Amino acid sequence: MLGLWSAHAQTFLLMVMVATTLVFALPIFLVPLTWARWFGWRIPEHTDLAVYFGRCLGAFILIVEALMLRAALTGSGLVFTYQVLIAVAALMMVAHIWGAVLRIQPISETLEIGMYAGLGALALLFYPVSAPV
């Protein structure tokens, strides 16, 4: 399974980078509470801390997006970028499973478990087995 579609590793990264930049990174970074409302969160009256955490999370997502864009366009750091993407998928699954078990998140967040599982599986299928580091 590892690297079955590795010939298309850069194209896959470019597609994931564009989608996640538009749906997650930029909205979370620029308008975190609006993004939270889109995904079903109920926002309390005092939101400064939530905005701060949202912008911090958005900033880190943008870093991952930049890694994917660079690797997709140039091939530079391709293996490392896939390792980061697989780590993101795995840890985000843990975070979302935890929230689902505790029943502290809207259904959209619980459904993201499947999205991250799919992203992780696809990252393994597109893993660049013979690419330069």
From TrEMBL:
Keywords of the record: Membrane, Transmembrane, Transmembrane helix
Record field: transmembrane: 12-31, 52-73, 79-101, 113-130
Protein name: DoxX-like protein
Organism: Sinimarinibacterium flocculans
